[in-house]
Design a protein that fits this description.
heterotetramer; A: alpha+beta; 4 helices; B: alpha+beta; Ubiquitin-like (UB roll)
Chain lengths: 150, 83, 150, 83
């Protein structure tokens, strides 16, 4: 298990390659990469604040929970903080398993939980000023999908 | 009892500081929130809608009726928006 | 949409990076990579046979169906044929979307359909000889999850 | 009617060739299978359990009762195991 919370950019392709490399027992790797989206073309920057200490702890707990629910050979979470611009990669997760169903479900689960349970907050800046991104009810609702311990 | 209190995102902005050390006899998070809100307007404003506030005790998410016994670090923040 | 059926190896990391690069409207990229698994340590090689012409056609139809069901900015499928050894990458899919739910569902869908509806057949060789891999009832059952047109 | 018939995986191995051109009056896939099976033992063996055989007509999956009218390429193969 590899959990990284960092200000620096990460190399998505290189991380995917490294994560998938040199494993013998696995059959499936799933990766997710989150990108700063610019819907209306007006976003200038996104500032990500986090809670040092708790962030790593929460991500580790989420990853451990995924490891209890599915047969994972490994998982990786990288999440950035600080100032990002549209098109930049915010974060990624990767899961490796013998079977694709476990790898998919675990990656999906990691994303749902870190969206709403890891202490990150986003603030978006446009020409009109800056505003904290509100949590989406859809993101909270997504957690109910994993209802064994929602 | 001495607590380290942390604020994040718009709670940090409304309170006007990222962290402070507070001496209190509050037994629960609720009591602490009431105590802070009574102290100054900026706290009352920050805590005016508790449905939009989350709390962590020693870096674990908690409820507002949770006990502060043995707690060293309390953090207040809005619902998280990671990913 | 990019569909490739090839004998040559592909560079999973480079494909992930290229797929995620330089897109403005997206927020989510999901990739899946299938690896030749060696469960008992006895597998020497896997031979993948396919049906040239129909393979590309079937993959394109599956990708088009995914594009109708979810809001995808793009998708990629690479599938190898020929002789592979344990640890080698067989295939990958990638999906890009504004939102993570679409990217995840589409990648999962692509995998389920290409497992059972694209004309590939696997033969495994061990010291005891070689044998065609039997289709799994679980793979067929997985298609029922997408029941709008299963 | 002249059909190009393709065989894949263990069907190819049992029939002993990857493709052949066949002249037939069969109206459906079922009739074609019966005709081939009657021809030689290797075909009868290959088609002995049709629940394990899939068919594509001009590169689209089809059923065994499908018509061969206008079809140029028929492929027989076991259930697919891609991915």
């Amino acid at each position: 298990m590899d959990i990284r919370v960092q200000e620096a950019a990460f190399d998505y392709g290189a991380e995917c390659a490294r994560f998938a490399d040199g494993r013998s027992g696995i059959g499936a790797v799933v990766t997710f990469c989150g990108v700063v989206r610019n819907d209306g073309g007006s976003l200038q920057a996104m500032e990500i604040e986090h809670y040092p200490g708790m962030t790593e702890r929460a991500l580790r707990q989420i990853a451990e929970e995924a490891g209890k629910r599915w047969a994972l050979a490994d998982c990786l979470i990288i999440h950035r903080y600080g100032r990002l611009t549209p098109g930049e990669r915010i974060m990624m997760v990767a899961t490796a398993s013998a079977h694709r169903a476990d790898a998919f479900a675990a990656a999906d689960f990691l994303m749902d939980y870190l969206k709403s349970r890891a202490p990150f907050w986003k603030k978006e800046s446009t020409a009109d000023g800056s505003e904290w991104v509100a949590a989406k009810s859809a993101d909270e609702a997504a957690l109910a999908r994993w209802s064994r311990r929602a | 009892m001495t607590l380290e209190i942390l604020y994040f995102a718009w709670l940090r902005e409304r309170v006007g500081l990222p962290r402070e050390t507070v001496t209190t006899e509050a037994a629960t998070v609720d009591e602490l929130v009431r105590e802070l809100s009574a102290r100054e307007e900026r706290y009352a404003l920050a805590f005016s809608d508790l449905s939009a506030v989350r709390v962590a005790l020693d870096q674990d998410l908690a409820d507002f009726d949770a006990s502060l016994a043995g707690v060293r670090e309390v953090a207040f923040f809005p619902p998280m928006t990671g990913g």
